Each structure stands twice: as structure tokens, then as C-alpha cells.
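User: Run a structure prediction on this.
Assistant: Running it now.
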Amino acid sequence: MPAGRRKKEIKLSLMEFNAQMVQKEQKQHKSAPNAWRQKLQIKEGTTTTTAAEAAKQLLPKRSISKSVVKVRFDLPDEEEEETITRDQAAMQADPRSKSQIQLLKRPVVKPAANNNNNETHSDSIRGTRRGRGHRRVKHCPRIPTPPRTVPTELRQVDSMTSADFRHDFAAHVDNMRTRQKNQQHMHFFQTLMEENQHLLKNRNLLVLNCGTGTLALMAARAGAAQVYAVDYSLVTNYAQLVVKQNNYEHIIKVLHGHVSQLKLPERVDGIICNWMGHCLLYESELLQLLQARERWLKPGGFIMPDMAALYLLGSAEYLLKNERCNWWLNVYNFNMRALRRYALAEPRYAKIKGEHLLTKAHKVLSLNLNTVSLEQLHINKDIKLQVQHDGFCECFVLYFDVAFSRAHQPLTLSCNPCLQTNYKSPWLQTVLFVEQSFMMRAQQEYKGRLVFQSLAKPGEAVDLLHMKFEIELHEHDKNDSIGRALVLKSWNMMPRFQTLQEVADCQDRLVAHEPQN
């Protein structure tokens, strides 16, 4: 090559480069035909058996059959014919070497005899085609259920099904936890008993609606001589077990049944009961409490708590109304106003904050359980709302307060939405949405009438599970002259779904409605 001239560079692709490397390796492999013998250190004239022994040295130690040793070598094409001829000659010279080489074949399982007349011929053929006989699946023997140790007190409630809990949800463990965990009324009763032990010590007490027996245990710890824990739910089975585990069975006696079905051996000095319901009356235990008061309470005895009051307010809860009612106006571009009518026909229970309240609280009911009668468990009175802030009224809000009149220090359990507490409440506030919002101004007065009563017909027993609200509200000027009517609407409170006619009767009669088919 002349001086000063450089070798021309050749650019290769990756594929061309790999092809050249493969050709180079093949040339090197053919140039060393005896390389495999050097690797195994086998000399010329070595038999196949000796080569196999040499191969054993290179293989890892594992269990190898004594009669068969399989050795495979990647021989060059030039040596293949020579090796085969030498191996055949060695086998003829040494007949013992025949036992060292065997042809391995896949074992063929013969199809099993078909003894079952119910098995079809196609199933037998299918099993033969797969190289195995047709085999019936052996059923696993039934695993016996491990024995369950159920306490004697819980045998009855342990057999309850989901259908039973629909009619007796108080016996469900989740309900027991929800009704007690971090609840405001439980801390109220605990504080009330601790601060008034002088009323409980060495007294005979009755705990109505006892649940799991927590209030009965509090009374026994406060020094009561005898406590009768009564409940008509099967939750009393849990109460018996809890009382036994806390070693109070000599003080607390758990009874199952309604007040009208039970008999106590003696009269009691006081009754402790968490009797409150929504709006005080709905789903409350007042009927059971008044029966127990007449049958078993001594003259001069106490009821804890015994004082209660119900309040009414007007509120501008437009966000809550949009979420609960107005959402049905447009559901994925579909008109569902019929469902909005149902949403407006029933009261709702929600956590209300005081920032949207428009009026002051107006007392609509006051109860003294020491003297109240069944005929007084309703509301039918005039109302007057005093406006504090101007705004559009979207709903009416009701809440209640309860207290114990004989407490050593005043203590009140309140559901007032303006009070801030870290505890929960099972009642929250009761919300009555109006169909059309209306403006409330501070210089105007708003008067009307409120009716809250049982749906029982005249002559029937009072029923606190089927009740009805009705509100009529008018705008008045300063001269107390009646202005325009604002609301004339009712709401039903019942444990079942309302019928179409009941929903139609609950609509505001001042608003024109579209006919419903």
C-alpha cells in the first residue's frame, strides 16, 4: 500500500456484522475436528462406554440410572460417520455393552375398562386420543364443620338469619356498635349517673330499652341495689352475656318482652330510658315508658331524662336541597321529576350547620314525662317565626333538647345545629323541604300553624311509627294583616314506602302540579 494512503473504511449494518461473525465461528469449528476429544481428554481407540464415564465427570452429581447413560456430543459433520462405525464395532466386540444402551419411548397407557354403563363411548375415545384412559374424578370426602362454641345466652340469636334482622335490627352487632360508639347521648347518661349517684345508690331501678346493657351496668356501678333491664329485642341475649362477664348478675336481671307482657316482683324508685326519637316522638319509646310509669314507678320516683322540648326554624339549605331533591330534575339529561315528588314528601335527617339558619328557634312542643299523657303526644298549635337574616327559605329544620329536672347540676342533651361537638348523634336534625323557595325578610312577620300527629284514625291506639307533619305559613306585615300564603304542605313519616296517592297528598297545595299517570 503506498505510503500516505489510508485503508478505506467499510461501514456495516448490525445484521451484516452478525453474519460475518457466524461465518468466522463456523470456519474455526471445522478447522479443529478433534476439539471435543481434547475437552473430554479422550484418546484414539476409546470405546463408547469409556467416553460415557468421562462425560460423567463433567456432569453435576445427581442420581443417574446404573444401566443407562445418555451422552450427547455435538460432533462435526466430518467425524459423524467415523464415530457411528466405531461404536457399532465396539458393541459387536463386547456383547455386555448392549445392556448399556436402550431406546427410550414414551409410555402408552392402555385405556381402562369401561365398567360404568352411564359413561358414553365418546368419552372413552376422547381419553384414548389423549394418550390416557378415561378416569372418573374422585369426589373429595366432605370436610366436617369444626365444632362452634356458642355461649348458652347466644344460642337463640345465633340462629337468626338476615330475614330475622330485618324485623329486629337492634339485635345486629353493627347496630349495637353504631348506637354506642362515640355517641353524644351515651356520654350524657354516663355524666348524669356519675354526678347524681345519691339518687341511684341503694335504689331499685328499671332500665327500659336496655340494648346491650350498658346503661344498666352504669346504674349498677353507681351503687344501685337492684336493676331490671328490659327490652323487646333479642339484644337481651347479648345483655345477659355482658352482665355475666362483668360479674353483675347478682344485681342486674335482664328481661325480654314488652312492658305489657312482663311482671316485676316490686315497684322501682326510678326509670332510666333512652326514649327519644326523631322529632322527639317519631319511633320513640314513649308508649313503653308511659306504661312502665303507670305500672311500676313508685310515687315520687324519677324518670331520667324527664324534660324535653322541640324547636322549629327556617333555613336556606340550598346545597342540601339540590343534593337531596333538585338533583332529580335532570339525571343524565333525563326528566325524573316524579322521583323529586317522592323526595319532597318525606322528611330527611341530616347534619345541619347554623350558618344557613334564617330564623330564631321557635318552641313547638314541651314535655314533662312525670305528668304527660297519651293525648298530649301530638302538636296542633300556631307558630311564629322571627327572621334574623334575609334569604330564601328552602326548608324547615326541627331539633330537640332533653334534660333531667332533678340533676345535681344542670345538664342538657341538645341536637341544636348551632352547637359544635365532637360526638355523634343518632337523630341529627329533621329537615322538611318546601317545594318552592320563598324570600324571608327581617322586617316581615311569618305566622301559621303546625300539626304533628299520629296517622291513627279516631278511636284507634296511638301509633308513633306512622305520623304526619303539616305546615301552613303566611306573610304578615307590621300591622299584623295577613299577606300572601307561602306554604301549605304536609310530610309523611312512616317505616314503609309511600303510595302514589300519599305522595300526591303531600305536595304543596299552593303550587300547580302536572297530572301524574
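The longest strand covers residues 391-403.
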